[in-house]
Write a structure and sequence with these properties.
Distance between the termini: 25 Å
Oligomer: single chain
Structural class: alpha/beta
Number of strands: 6
Largest sheet: 6 strands, mixed
Helix content: 25-40%
Radius of gyration: 13 Å
Mean pLDDT: 96
Order of helices and strands: EEEHEHEHE
Low-confidence stretches: none
Number of helices: 3
Length: 114
């Protein structure tokens, strides 16, 4: 599963149960985020025991994108059977602040900064 735009790519590596995001996600509406939401939903429906969301390559994420990630984490929490780790980069200022908020939504979420 892979979704590519002009400035971004989002894909899922099933072997490692890792969702990777790269580039700059500046989509203008939730409708524009629909393919990404579908990918996140499909992965969640597979209910891997452990899942990783790797955002280290994501340089920018607008408020709509943060909303998408928040809803994704809430959905994972509601499943109750999935452990999720989120990998971010200390070098990317928005990640340090915003990713900690995901941990508030799901206290068992493992947050790792490189």
């Amino acid at each position: 599963m892979e979704i590519k735009g002009e400035d971004y790519a989002v894909w899922y590596e099933a072997e490692t149960a890792t969702i990777l995001c790269k580039g700059s996600l500046r989509l203008s509406s939730m409708e524009d985020y629909a393919p990404i939401i579908q990918l996140l939903s499909d992965v969640t429906d597979q209910e891997p025991a452990v899942m990783t969301l790797d955002l280290r390559g994501l340089e920018f994420l607008n408020s709509s994108g943060i909303n998408v990630l928040s809803k994704f984490v809430i959905r994972v929490r509601q499943k109750g059977s999935i452990q999720i780790a989120v990998r971010g980069s200390q070098e990317t200022p928005w990640q340090v602040k915003s990713l900690k908020n995901l941990q508030r939504l799901m206290p068992s979420l493992v947050l790792q900064f490189d």
